[in-house]
Amino acid sequence: MAIEVYPNIYRHEIPLPGNPLKAIHSYFILSKDRNLIIDTGFNRKECRDAFMKGINELNIDFNKTDLLITHLHSDHSGLAAELSKEDVNVYVGKIDGKMINDMSSDEYWRRFEEYAVMFDLTKDNIAFDDHPGYKYCPKEGIEFIDLIEGDLINIGDYSFEVIDIPGHTPGHIGLYDRNHRIFFGGDHILDKITPNIAFWGFEQDILSVYFDSLKKIYQYDIDYLFSAHRNIVKNHKKRIDELLGHHKDRLNEIKEIIKDGKMSVRDIASRMNWSLRCNIWEDFPNPQKWFASGEAMSHLEHLVYTGQAEKIEDNGILYYSLKGRNE
Ligand SMILES: [Zn+2]
Q1: pLDDT digits 0-9 by tens, 49-72
Q2: E-assigned strand segments in 181-308
Q3: Is 239 inside a domain boundary?
Q4: Domains in the chain: how many in total?
Q5: Gap between the Cα atoms of 16 and 21, Å rounded
C-alpha cells in the first residue's frame, strides 16, 4: 500500500526478503506533468512485484516518470536498469552513478577477494559473491543523468535542490525543498537503525566524510526527513546528535579492543557488539561478516587518519593497534 505522507508524495514499502533492513521505502512524487520516483528495491522478483503494485495502485505512467537513485546500494538501485528501458530518465549523483555501472561487472567485485585476504576473512572461507551488494545489483550498464549539488528538480508545487551527503556511500545525494522544509535523505539519517558506514578504499577517511555530511544537514530547516528505511525523522538535529554519539561509542569500543596489541580486522569485528541474533562470529551469515568487517574498517581507518591507531601488514593481512602498542 502506498501511503500519502505529504501532499502528492506517497511512501511505498518494498520488502527486502532475508535482509536485516526488512524493507525499503520508495517515494512516489506525483504531478500532472511529470512524476518522480525515489529508489526502487533490489533487482529480484519480490521487490519488482511490490514495486509494480505501487505503480499500478497510483496509476503511474512510465512515459511521464523519472527515477532518482539516492545512492548506489542495490536495495536502492536494483531495478534502475530495467526502468531505464521503459524510457524513464534515471537521475543519480555523479560518483555513485559511475560506481553502479562499475558494479554491474564482476571485475569490480574481484577487489573483494583482495579485501578478504586483507581483513583475514579467508579463515571463514568468504568469497566476493557473498558480499551483500553483489547479488541483487543491476547487471547491465545504465545511461544515467548525472546530478551535482545545486541542481534543481521541479515537480508540481515542489522544487528540489540536490544536496551532496557523502559518507554512507561516496556519492550519496539527497533532495531538499526549502519552502516545504522536507528532505529526502536515502540512508543518510535513519531512525531506529544506524546507517552502515563501510570501507570504500584507503584514499579517504570516510567516517570523517560522513560526520561532515551529518553536520551539514544539521544546519537545514527540516520538518520531515523522509528516509529510505524505518521511520520518518521529525527531529533531525536530535537524531544527528544520537548518530554522532553512536560512532563515538563505536570508536571507543574499538580502541578498547586494540589497546593490548595488534589485531586483524576479522578479530576486531568479531569482538565488537552487533545487534544480530547470533552471538558468536562463526554463526554470522557470510554477508554479515562482510558488513561487520566493513564497518570495523571505516572506524579503524578513521583512528589511523586521526593519529590514534596504527596499522601494519603481514603476509597480506592488516593488523591494527592503538598508537604505540604495536608489538
Ligand atoms: Zn544504503
Answers
A1: 999 999 999 999 999 999 999 999
A2: 182-186, 224-227, 263-264
A3: yes
A4: 1
A5: 7
